[in-house]
Amino acid sequence: MRRPRPASGEAPGRAQWFVVGTPAVGSSLSASQASSGSTAAIASVDRHFDPEAFLAWSHSVYERATAAWRDKNPELLRPVMAEQVWDHYAKFLLTVSALALGRELMASAVAEPALAAAAVDQASQSVLISFSVTIAGPRISAVEERARRWQERWLFQRAAGSRTHASGMVAVCLMCGGPAHPADSGRCTYCQADITTRTAGWLVTELATTMQGAPKIGSLSRNQAASAAPAAVATPLQPPRAL
């Protein structure tokens, strides 16, 4: 994990961005920087790319994260995150989930997504999604007002040669093209193929958050990991990540 720092273009003393992960080599986008731009660059190389469909899918990925908090199961996020991001997020989730209130509040998070930027570089395609996050729930009064809302930026990237399914959908079975909801796991209901990835190649390679306490909790989770070797987790067999 990186140390918190002001986001590009923001005055010191305002939102401090806590960042995990690393953009693909040669990427012109970063989750830690304020960016702007359209998805036209991706559409120019991928005629089936649909910005609205991608935005809806990215929202479903965030909802998958809230489900991971609810079930205390970071494995739900492994198929949609690069290993470095997933490893940090999993430790963060398990650390906070040690307190029932922490898990309950994070599981109640509601995020409003927006397309922040997009780019195509020599080695990768990138889409930066910003999330305005609010926590709710019956015990919200236990959290001070300023800690109930924060901002997140998730950088989704895939190999430059990747293409979206002809349907324009991001979450599809890579074998037959059947719809695959992000909550699904296991086998496609149409052709029985493994649908573990169902992301048309997109993975979260970098994540930034202004959530209050994130740096402190991140440091705690690192210390806990250092004092006890993590249990080995088998990586499921997966079909190619891109069509």
Pick out its properties.
243 residues, disordered C terminus, six-stranded antiparallel β-sheet, 5 helices, alpha+beta, disordered N terminus, Nuclear Transport Factor 2, Chain: A, single chain
What is the strand and helix layout of this fold?
Elements: E1 5-6, E2 16-21, H1 40-45, H2 51-71, H3 83-96, H4 100-107, E3 110-120, E4 124-134, E5 149-159, E6 203-209, H5 214-227
Antiparallel strand pairs: 1-2, 2-6, 3-4, 4-5, 5-6
How many domains in all?
Answer: 1
Biggest sheet features:
6 strands, antiparallel
Low-confidence spans: 1-13, 224-243
Category by helix and strand content: alpha+beta
Name the average pLDDT.
Answer: 78
Number of helices: 5
Write down the Rg: 18 Å
> Helix and strand string, N-terminal first?
EEHHHHEEEEH
Portion in beta strands = 15-25%
The side-by-side strand order for the widest beta sheet comes to 1-2-6-5-4-3
C-alpha end-to-end distance: 31 Å
Per the CATH scheme, the topology name is Nuclear Transport Factor 2, Chain: A
User: Based on the structure given, which CATH architecture is correct?
Assistant: Roll
Q: Any idea what the shape is?
A: globular
The number of E-state strands comes to: 6
CATH class, please? Alpha Beta
Q: Percent helix among the residues?
A: 25-40%
